[in-house]
Amino acid sequence: MKQLSEWLSNRVVAWYIVAAVALLTAVSLFQVRGLDNEDDILAFMPQDNPDVRLFYDINKRFGGLDLALVGVSCPDAFDGDFLARLQKTTEELDEIPELGHVLSLTNVMDVTPDEEHGGVVTARLVQQPPRTEAEKRALREKVLSRDHVVGNLVGADGKAVLIYAFLAYGVEQRQVAGKIRDVVDAQLGTAGNQLFWGGQPFVSTYIYDTTQEDLRRLTPWAVLAIVLIMILAFRDLVGALLALVTTGIGIAITLGAMATFDVPFNIVLSAMPIILFAIGSAFGIHLMARYYVRHERGDRKALAHSLMGVGPTIAAAGLTTVVSLLSFVFMDIQPIRTFGFFTALGIFITLLLSLTFIPAVIRLTGLKRKPSDSILLKKLMVSLTVYSQKHRLAVGMVLLAIAGVSAGWISQVDTSVDNTTFFDAGSPPDLSDRFLKEQFGGSQFVQIHVEADMDDPHVLREVRRIADRIRMLPDVSSVQNYPDAVALTNEAMSGQRRIPDTRDQVCCLYQFLMDDPAVNQLVSTDRKMGLLHVKVSSNRSCDLHRVLHQVELIVSQHLIADYRIVRAGQPGWDRAQERKREMLLWRLQALAAQYDALPEQRDAYLKSVRALLAEPTPQADRDYLVARLTRFMRSEECAVQLDPPPPDGPGAELDAPRTRRVAEALAALKEGAGEQLIAESVRKTLELTAEDPLAEDLAFSVVTPLREFFKDGRAEKRLARLVASSGLRLPTGQKGERFEVALAGAMWDLDNSSVIEAAGERSASKIAMTANGLPVLQRGLSRSVEANQVKSLIFALVLIVIILAFLFRSLWSGLLAASPTIFTLAVVYGGMGMLGVHLDIGTSMLASIILGIGVDYAVHLVAAWRAPEGGTIVESAAAAADQSGPAIWTNAIMICVGFFVLTLGKARPLQNVGGLTAAAMLVAALATFLVIPALARKIRYRKAVKDDPGEEETSEAVVAVLNNYATK
Amino acid sequence: MSKHLACTLLAAALSLSAASPALALDGEEIMALMDKSLTRATDQYFIYEFVTEEKGKEPRQLKIEVTIKGEKWRRVEFLAPGDIKGMRTLILDTDTIWTYMPAYRKVRRVASHAKAQGFMGTALSHDEMATVTYSPLYKGVLVSEDDKNWTVLGTRREGSGAPYAQVRFVIRKDCHQPTELYYINNKGETVKSDIRTSFKCKQDVCNPRVMVVTDHTRNDLKTTMVQRAWKMNTGVSDRFFTVRAIQRR
After folding, report:
1. Separation in Å, CA of A129 to nearest CA in chain B
2. Crossing angle, helix A602-613 and helix A694-725, to 10 degrees?
């Protein structure tokens, strides 16, 4: 500092410094024009976290799990005009390249049996918007009977629809969310409709946009408030402007450096101007305040002496802040690392400018002002400090008690990342959450990643058993899974809604499923991996994490990880039969829950179902078999027609005497009859010659359906018993019919001749399941934030103590200077625990910011802690408070007001950070004047500076307070 | 007469007629010529290999045997991959498919009204697989021409049920075969393209040996179809196109 002050005494050097700064600023401003902006929300995810990595791996493999949900509340979802608009919306969304797949009521497929010709009809559920009232009523009845559509794509009351837009992997959420909004607004944003934007892309975009908007809107006000306080406190417009210009230059050079090194600007860096104005301007203010005092007292080398006197303290205070902000580079969140590094750089540049540029300007302009003298504030600070020093035991006990209580509350700080804490009740995301919960059972999903042979029907049944157990958990609305998709397609291709019996059949069905984009979200193209999508009705992180925990428990306790297949007749078949019945029990429960048919008396229901499943195998009715066979042989699926088709087309059972006779003959055969036996029966019944190929053709055509009809007949009988005896609350209408179809399909599984069971040892046949999805991502983020917090805090604290120890030439002195800030941290984090403020990305940055700024106050107080030769600690305390009190409080109030302005916006993250930083600055300033006097044991902590003409005279405030104590 | 000579003579004759100013054709006439060239054979037999490439995924292969008779009847047998080997489908009209599934040992009749869906994981839709002639679906307007090709913009005919708003055809003047098809949506954006190359002619019938279809709405999903065998006018029986026939090879 001495060398610097000597250089600055030379006017030429001062000119060089001013010119160099001006040139650097101009170059920086030129560079800033090329500064890029990074808007990618995903950049805030910690890329090294294992949970986050797994999420991205799965996201990539399944082509995108990010789901944007658009809810539309409308007067009538079946209105022709509305459906036409919905159709157009869906088509336009489907053409957005960043969307992998879009699903709505207008493009969902529907498969129905073709009663007239046989087989099935596949078509869109809504083929075209209705034109008449009658068409509308018919469509309404049809759509509301589809249980997989109601509550997923249309509300149960027909007054809401939901559009699912799956984002392609790796796209920018904000950009896509904007495109979706544009399309939907244009088509469906008409009067009478209300739009709700849900899912992570919209919620993240809302949080990001409101934060950015608040920062853009509030930053000028925060800076203005800081400037006004500065001018009011120091009553020096020129000095305040010089400090501000210096900080402005610091910001310009920092941004120029970012542009030069191609580092994009991000939303966190938007807070940099407020932080730099609040902290950086204090450096110049401290120097000028000291310079004015010395100049007023006639010191001819006021500038040099001020630099030597307060320069090291300013440098130490600035470096502690730099170190605190640099601690962010240990975080695994890239934008925070960028923020930490470049804000630290900004502080460092401002510090350098305060110690070079400002003295140079003073040297060149001969700037001088009368120092401000706030006697009242000084008296108050001196009184407080002296009181704390004189009653250090009592004060210490109180502070210790406060710290203890705060420490207790710190353990209550919720570290879970919860989106709902980022927006207020009544805000658009909150309204969307409520709408999606009421109409569609929620908008949050837990995904379960499955690694197994997804072509094996036994594996599919085991996966579905786990899905059924999860489906029964509270707060779980539905579980979408590949086995269900296979069962539905099996119904279309074979007639039974169940997982087929053989691997070949599962493989065959996949060929019909692979073009459905929704299926690509359930199984990988090589069928070695799958995903279960668990829809959770609650958006609160505690509920999501509870569901996540329960899901992980079910997987760890109930999944058969190493399995083997037991076939009928093999050893252990009896035990395997028991397991088969247990699997079916869960299936029946899950189906009943899905159709809201579970009886109140759950235990009695389970008991009766268990008894029913253990009953002897019933036989199919002969009449039932004859009817089914006749219908099949009259359909277009049968290769041979035994009777001429009726005038209005095939399918009718009337006037088909040959068909009827063959059906009766085949129904009399033993179950499992082969082609040869069937052919002989046909030949005998129709009196065909051995050469007539009709018998073989018919036998080939009918052999598989006949076996299925036997099983269908048994399933029907079991179903009738179940409905009659278990107390199920059967839904009415088409929904009830579909429920019965689902139950009958499940009943088929009792006839399965092979069952999966635990291998009892390590096996090559494995199933692995891992919970994943947004809640896991958030858990990963929470863990990262916690780890970051600890890492950055330790780094900052250790380096700060080292810097302070170096400044005061003593480790204990360094610890003394750090102690008020540690106390402040305890109080602030305790307050967060008490008020329920979550530790998130924003609030996790608080510790280092508080540490960096708060420790400055202690540095200034400890540096000014001194008494004349032979003086007492009380005198030291009084002198320190007198000299540093006004500057400390001015700075604390500046930062407090600057950050408080941020609480006036809509963005909850800014409100939290702004409010807590504002409060922390007041606590830190107050703690400085209480903790240090209570702990200080020396009359001075910093050596006198050589060549310094001496300490200032004892001030009026010190004299008054000390006299007051002396007279007591 | 060698195949090569026949093809050259055919091309020369067609080129002469097309090049004559007195015979300037409008878009509708050109599309009619194209449709005629696509349906000139009584029946045709092909083996195609499909390779479908999707970003970030392993290429998928498919091998099929196709027999076509007239403008509507077609029978497809899947030869690979093993999962679906032996599966046979029969199409007698554009709305109904009979599928024989060996894994189930039964025939299933599927009446489909959703033809825009993809075909077996390829970039093609059922619609494109089923479409043989374009004039009934699109009204053609000649956009430009040079000495080798016409470019015709087909716009969806009212009530035709054509899946795209427009299709831009580049049609060879010599053999009237489309070499490039660009499917365009309501906003005028090209959503799918079909590039046909390596044409081979037999008598007056030509076919591309390589077709590359790219779906631009599905992350540029690309399917390359390579013709491995081609026979024409084999006299295949009508009985080959029955439910009875597809369940018994």
Report:
1. 15
2. 150
What is the per-residue pLDDT for B12? Answer: 46
- Are the C-beta atoms of residues A793 and A847 closer than 8 Å to each other? yes
CB-nearest to B101 from A63, A94, A508 is A508
Same-domain status, A194 and A315: no
Contacts of B107 in chain A (CB under 8 A): 637, 639, 701
- Residue A945: pLDDT band with limits 50, 70, 90: low
Q: Hey, is the C-beta of A193 within 8 angstroms of any chain B C-beta?
A: no
A564: number of Cβ within 10 Å? 19
Is the pLDDT higher at A58 or at A901? A901
Residues A657 and A734 in one domain: no
- Judged against a pLDDT cut of 50, whether residue B15 lies above it is answered with no
Three-state DSSP class for residue A581: helix
Helical ranges in A668-773 per DSSP H: 675-686, 694-725, 733-748
Q: What is the count of residue pairs from A and B with beta carbons less than 8 Å apart?
A: 129
Which of residues 69 through 98 in chain B touch A, CB cutoff 8 A?
A: 83-84, 87, 98
Write out pLDDT tens, residues A226-251: 888 888 877 777 778 888 889 899 99
Contact A507 B83 (CB under 8 A): yes
- Residue A639 contacts B where some CB pair is shorter than 8 Å: yes
Paired with B184 in beta bridges are: B166, B190
B247 contacts chain A (CB < 8 A): yes
Q: What is the pLDDT of residue A183?
A: 96
Q: Which pLDDT score is estimated for B3? A: 44
- Distance from C-alpha of A363 to C-alpha of A802, rounded to nearest angstrom: 34
Tens of pLDDT, residue by residue over A707-747, are: 999 999 999 999 999 988 888 888 888 788 888 989 999 99
Q: How many domains are contained in chain A?
A: 4
Residue appearing with tokens 């008490």: A834
User: Sorting pLDDT into bands at 50, 70 and 90, what band is B21?
Assistant: very low
> How large is the average pLDDT for residues A822-850?
86
| Mean pLDDT of all residues in A45-63 | 77
Contacts B113 to A, Cβ<8 Å: 121-124, 127
Listed by start position, the domains of chain B span 3-247
CB-based contact A463:A538 (threshold 8 Å): no
CB neighbours of residue A644 within 10 Å: 10
| Residue numbers in A near B112 (CB within 8 A) | 121-123
Does pLDDT of A655 surpass 50?
A: yes
Query: Do residues A744 and A780 share a domain?
Result: no
| Min Cα separation B215/chain A (Å) | 11
Give the pLDDT of residue A126.
92
Q: Do B98 and A494 touch (CB under 8 A)?
A: no
- Minimal-distance CA residue of chain A relative to B100: A637
Residues of chain A numbered 685-714 and touching chain B (CB < 8 Å): 697, 700-701, 703-705
User: Which residues in chain A have Cβ-Cβ distances shorter than 8 Å to B109?
Assistant: 114, 117-120, 635-637
Give the H or E element holding residue A260: helix A237-260
Minimum distance, in Å, between the CA of residue B208 and any CA atom of chain A: 26
Contact A526 B189 (CB under 8 A): no
Residues 6+ apart with CB under 8 A from A940: A865, A866, A867, A876
Kindly state the percentage of chain A with pLDDT values over 70: 94
| B107:A639 CB<8 A | yes
User: Would you identify the CATH topology of the domain B3-247?
Assistant: outer membrane lipoprotein receptor (LolB), chain A (2.50.20)
**Percentage of chain A surpassing pLDDT 90?**
38
Q: Which residue has the higher pLDDT, A191 or A554?
A: A554
Measured CA angle at B223 (ends B218, B229), to 5 deg: 160
Give the residue from A206, A222, A252 where a domain finishes.
A206
Q: What range defines the domain where residue A858 resides?
A: 2-40+235-418+776-967
A84 and A171: one domain?
yes
Residue with tokens 């869109």: A124
Q: What's the pLDDT at A956?
A: 65
Q: Do A117 and B186 touch (CB under 8 A)?
A: no
